[in-house]
Amino acid sequence: MCIGVSTKPRRATDNSGLPTGVLNAPFVFLLLMICTTPVLADTHDQLYKVAGWPEQRAHFTDALDAAQQRYRSSLPPAVFQALVNNSNQRFEPTAVDRRAEAQLRANLSDPKPALAFFNPPGAQDRGGRAAGHPP
What we know:
Largest sheet: none
Helix content: 55-70%
Strand content: under 5%
Radius of gyration: 26 Å
């Protein structure tokens, strides 16, 4: 019997010593995510955008900033900072978008009629592009 010689069959590995399938799994997952990204841009997401909600959220954020600044001189510094921190956390733009889109999905089972309303056939914006579509 030779020392260091195994009679067990070895699994195929790459240079990392891991079985080959282990390193391929993240690559396959990434490839699937890239290939299915257009599918994820569904009609709810399109409706959210063509209805102007991202712009409305931006206007709200600007108004919130202005309101916060109006309180700067009338509140003690610690109270003002707590107000700003709490409102910034509550109205953080990506969180607002996530909540709004979740409510849209929960309360509007078929967004196609609303999407058609905001994006009528043949409608064009001033730049000659179809209304509601990015350049």
